[in-house]
Amino acid sequence: MEKFDKLSGIAAPMPLVNIDTDMIIPKVFLKTIKRSGLGVNLFDEMRYDRQGNEIPEFVLNQPAYREASILVAGDNFGCGSSREHAPWAIADFGIRCVISTSFADIFYNNCFKNGILPIVLPEAERDALMEDAEKGANARIEVDLEAQTVTSSDGEVYHFEIDSFKKHCLMNGLDDIGLTLEKAAAIDTFEEKHATERPWV
Amino acid sequence: MSPKTLYDKIWDAHVAHEADDGTCLLYIDRHLVHEVTSPQAFEGLRMAGRTVRAPDKTIGVPDHNVPTTLDRANAETMTEDSRIQVEALDKNAKDFGIHYYPVSDVRQGIVHIVGPEQGWTLPGMTVVCGDSHTATHGAFGALAHGIGTSEVEHVLATQTLIQKKSKNMKVEITGHLKPGVTAKDITMSVIGETGTAGGTGYVIEYCGTAIQDLSMEGRMTVCNMAIEGGARAGLIAPDEKTFAYCKGRPHAPKGEDWDKAVEYWKTLYSDDDAHWDKVVTIRGDDIAPSVTWGTSPEDVLPIDAVVPDPASFAGGKVDAAKRALDYMGLTAGQKLTDIEIDTVFIGSCTNGRIEDLRAAAEILKGKKVKDGMRAMVVPGSGLVRAQAEEEGLADIFKEAGFEWRMAGCSMCLAMNPDQLSEGERCASTSNRNFEGRQGYKGRTHLVSPGMAAAAAITGKLTDVREMM
Ligand code: SF4
Question: What's the predicted TM-score (pTM) here?
Fold first, then answer.
């Protein structure tokens, strides 16, 4: 997994609340058996018309935001299904960080498995960054995972909270499975005890 | 011992390892897999030279993509990419030696219906699946939640999940439901009350007399939509009804094991003085047959209400409501019962069980679907389908003018050809009314099975109580 430490980039504003996983990556693109290549279909139904032409008003189609690496989003981003295709598409497009007031649980977890940092900020701070993002390509937002800060283009610094284990894995690009397999002995012991106490499982 | 909630008890019984910061390895008792979210996970195992740690606890069934037409045995009814996914699951199941119900098996169906039906899901277990509606299994007092594909791979390889504990929320439904009001209306009303992010960070336990009154089918409907309320999982404490449902199922314990299991299951309830981080109470008697008007499951109202004015909301919801009305082709102030529909879908893991089909058939008996409407029933599993045929429900549906399909997810998410076309409006017993969920620019109104049947007869959203 790609490491995440610092990021400086253009932020695209998406103020809509409850942006769901069907919007992020419509189900027609779930038929792949690969993880890559989904970026062109990120937000497909908002981004293209039925003929496949870009809808110019959509934020990621505007010249200022085509290279965005951060999303500033409305409340409850990523609600809906468990599809990891959503973070795969986001990462494949080149977005490494999403900022909102809240995220749906499964989506939030999925981000960390794909080198994406989801940042939760209070409403007022998210709103300030949304305004900043609306300035377009001249406004670069900086994210520092180590320091747990987001800095707006005019130098305003916002602190965010993050689980220490998730931070550690993201900063070092660690593979969860490898880490867990190091604890195989604990799993073995538990499994034995569990099987004795609850043999029907 | 300090008092515990049901969630605390199941959690404590499954912690295989706990790090200093509270990050746990939670042992997983049942892992369900389907064709859409698993191919990359199995591929990951292969590339790393890993195996499935507990194939006997891993159950696969294709459901999302499979055609539900009667001629589906013919592989050509599937599009190329769907077929590749289903074949990949066939192969992975064989290569890794997991339990499997292929499309040709009468027990095939929606993974969340097959699990309980086959007795894989039992009280006190931890159950995961690469699907958000895994919450369904919480109806048994099992801790069940959806995971992403990386986590699917993690569970396949280690039989554990890296987790931190969630907070406890109690949702109590007091009193008793009025006639015509169902489990679906309970679960939609809860989301209407708390919002789609209201449960974020929590595991919900549903309790109260109105929940106890429900059958196991109804309880599954309630827990199914815990995820629409943002919760990690929904739970209902097991009781005699739960035990009776499990008894005799193919993979339920037998003999001495059964007695031992029941003895343990009886300890699975929240202690009287357990701590709750949040409590929501709703009077069951106040719940009306409900319907969604917008494009988020929280956009829910009693059937006798009118389409709301976006200006009546606050914050980002004002724009979202405007967008929803535009998408749905509705105007503020319009009576919900004046909304005309052209499609009815009865099925999904929310309402695709036998009791749901009975409720719909009850309303449809001797009636006809309104001219020009498309109406379909997609049973949740091959066994539900067989039972409905035996009970004569299939005939009622067919005589009324419904299509009687094979089991699968179908128009719940429209990954197979069962889709709405642009602008088409559907009364659906599924769980999501997102933009495009049932087809590009399709419009979805979520309702209970009885309400869906009533709408099929009148061609409009209809108060089922007027048809009873
Ligand atoms: S029926 Fe619908 S919600 Fe249930 S598993 Fe299938 S697609 Fe998901």
Answer: 0.95
